[in-house]
# Entry
Amino acid sequence: MTTTAPAVALPPTKPAPKSSTRRADHGEGRLAAVLLSPTFLVLALVIGYPLVSALRESLYRRGEGLDANGFVVSGEHFVGLRNYTDAFTGAGGSRFWNAFGNTTFFTVTSVVLEAAVGLAMALVMHHALRGRALLRAGILVPWAVPTAVSGLLWRWIFDANGIANKLLGQQILWAADGWPAKWAVVIADTWKTAPFIGLLTLAGLQLIPAELHEAARVDGANAWVQFRKITLPLVKPALLVAVLFRLLDVLRMFDLPYLLVGNQKHSVQTLSVLAFNEANNLHYGPAAAYATLLFLYVVIVAYAFVKILGTDLIAEARAKTPARRRRSATRSLAGRGTPA
Amino acid sequence: MSRTRTTWRTSRTAGLAALAATTALVLAGCSSGDANDKASTADSGTDRGPITFAVGKDTSGALQKQVDAWNTAHPSEKVTLDELPASADAQLQQLQQNAQVKSTAFSVLGLDVTWTSEFAANRWIDAMPASTSTSGLLPAAVDSATYRGTLYSVPWQTNGGLLFYRSDLLTAAGVKTPPTTWQEMQADCAKVKALPQAKGASCYAGQFDKYEGLVVNFSEAVQSSGGHVFDTDGNPTVNTPQAKTALAWLAGAFKDGTIPQEELTYQEENGRKAFQSGKAIFMRNWPYVWDLANKTDGSSKVAGKFDVAPLPGLDSTGSSTLGGYNLAVSSFTRHKTTARDFITYLTSDSSERANLLAASTAPTRAALYEDRALQKKFPYLADLKQSLDAAVARPKAVRYGDVSAAVQDAIYPVLSGQAGPDTALASLQTKLTQITSQP
# Structure
């Protein structure tokens, strides 16, 4: 599967011969290393340390058992992989698989919905001539609302006597433990983040030269064929980046289930919520194990996504950036001239 | 292009260096973890100076006034009010985190009654000195402040459930006294519902969402039918005929519509709103509702049309679960003498009276409930006292969070009709035994 857009992508640049410039590079590289070292130190502190620390925590347990006087036995003890095996099999096994299932369900359904709605939004924003600026600002509002606030807003909407039930003419208990709760979360998440996909996709849409569509029209292609054969393939790189971001985000979903429905309800418990609950009850070892498993899951999904769909998103983006910048600059200049 | 390549290569070396640095940090972190287990309880008695008071949001502003008064009287032992979030979960989290790192940031802690055991068992709070007087305090509240026979905190605010009822509708239906049993309540409901002005009203509102409130309401039902969730030794006793009767009643009430299905999403505020808009005839709630439901600014349709009574039970008046806050001294703070003096000040007769007047928080001093002037201002005080006298503290489990989650997991499916009471209680018994027994 290829994602290099025929019209936009530059011909692949050949790597420069290494040997001729090696010496100069060496000095430069050393300087770069020195200049970058503060950044790496900060990264090690704020990313590396917590990560390793959580890994270590997941191999320990503490605060279990009371002594004769009713005090918690202090200190922690090494339990090896028991926190992990318990997560998969033991008493907590069903909880983990339930949370794992929910996380996957939310990821698949909300990302699919968001991509569809976001793409539609982008097309509307791209084609709208009148009030384009207003439309764009309007569509962005949900993305600007903090998730915690939108969680509370949707909580009112999905109240037993809320507007959702009024409109539907039904008495659905959205906030009770069950399928409606799952859908409440999916709907709220889609509302909030479809604009994000929409905006990134819009940026991709604006890179497609108008001549292509013109030529297609001349050749007699209808709107659907144009969309399928020109718009979609050319906008795919931008769309894929947006979807990847959303995938990584939804896998870690916490605030919406927590605020909208409640952290004890199994039907919306995600892995993040599960880890939070465990940590809240002072089971730091199991909490760290859940968090690590979630981390691995995110890594695997991201890797698979990049491998299967995106070939090499990052390198491709890097190669394209200069060209894109020039193009979008001329675009926006040209755009200013047209009546909005 | 070649430049990007080399930067990439060197950045890899730098990455290795960073990794090494991280490893060093982690090792340092490991060794510091076990070093400070010698949390001293040394106490000189003249340990005075500025302290802080960490407690949930002071919504009425009454607390700040009391702190200001203390600060004027004790210029060298000033107290800083450290307001924690309004939600109990968030409060607990902050207090736990501070205790975990043995932070000296908080001196006096405002602990929900369910947290005292956890904080005491983890040695996060100091035991109160044996000389601390508890006379005049409500016995149930003192019990909630005690862990394994030792007083670890002083009861400051208390709370008990009350049955709010529409006195106007009951009178119109010819019911003279509020119900004392569940059956009476259901019979009264039937009579009231026959009235045209009670059209569309539901019978009973409680807190049945899947959260801590469900534990409270379930425990009250069990206690009100003569059972206990935990016995006096702290062993779970939920697989009993009494508990089964209680749960069967709740499940039946959901089935026959006494409690509408939507209450599976009800917390305190949902119930209050339903009651205030005239949609519920009876409601179980905390005393704070009294003021709000009596507001005549249009927010309440039932101002002056309701009254309160102790909770109903199976055969006679029921029993409430105890809520409220206890004050404790952090093990890690400096100036513990000042901290203890400040607790004495806040739990004094006059402070609690001021708190009741300003924020209508229920006091822990029994004498205040008999005070004529206060009774006149808060007509529900006598009923509340009766409720508190019969109240039972929630289980004193060190792992209370686990206990609460287990109860919620077992009871909620029964109320929503997805599980039977008997099997749910049997498995809850096993689970609670597992949580509370010492491994």
